[in-house]
Amino acid sequence: MDDPGMSGTAAGAAPAGEGPSLLQRMVGVFVSPARAFSGRIPPRAWILPLILLSLFQTGESFLLRDLTVERMKERLVQTDLPEEARQKALEGLEQQGSGPMQVVLSVVGGGIWIFLMAMLLPALFYWLGANFVCGGSARYWVVTSVVGLSNLILLLRSVLTVPLKLSRNSLEVFTSLALLPAGEPGSKLQNALNAVDLFEIWIAAVAAVGLALAAGIRRGQAMTVVFVVWGLWVVLRMGMAFALTDTMWGALLGF
Predict the structure, then answer these.
(1) N or C: which end of the chain has fewer CB within 10 A?
(2) Within a domain: 210
(3) Cα distances (angstroms) measured from residue 195 to each of 152, 168, 207, 226
């Protein structure tokens, strides 16, 4: 983006300067997205969110490990796998370690997955849409920072849901359309409805505000770009839910 002041004016925000500090941006994502993305958005502002998301994901995985393994076992038993293959899969789950090396691998592996799937890939589609469809002037790494900062909302989801899962001794705590009384627990329909998550809608709305400022386009245009990409992702996840539920891969992937 060549002129941050132009992008702020185009999206209805105050003229750009250096803008808020990184900490102020991180807090602002939750309370005032327009303020969070005002001024010159640092192209490396995604790094700290990536670290925090990786650490939180690892902590959540550790806290919910026993519940996750038990659910995977239950789902594997329900599949139509041959008995020998089912037993090998169950033995593999039992042998999963939880030592220091496993924690390190979890942080690194989780960080790579978040970086690729939750930051780089969405940012690429947003950047393409904003620049080549809407005529914006966003820089790719600035858009990546917008996506990374917006994803901090996932931390709030973890803070709210993990204690509930532990207290109920169940992973069946939803922030999605799976809350609706439709489908049996673990059914294809429930897994498909779980793709429409309320926190992810919030993230998309916040990212759209940031994209409008970063690219110098109207907020309605940014909303269209972001929610089209999000909608396609939801459709893909729903398709995977219907295709993989009650299969070995579905059990391992959480469907």
Answers:
(1) N
(2) yes
(3) 19, 22, 18, 16
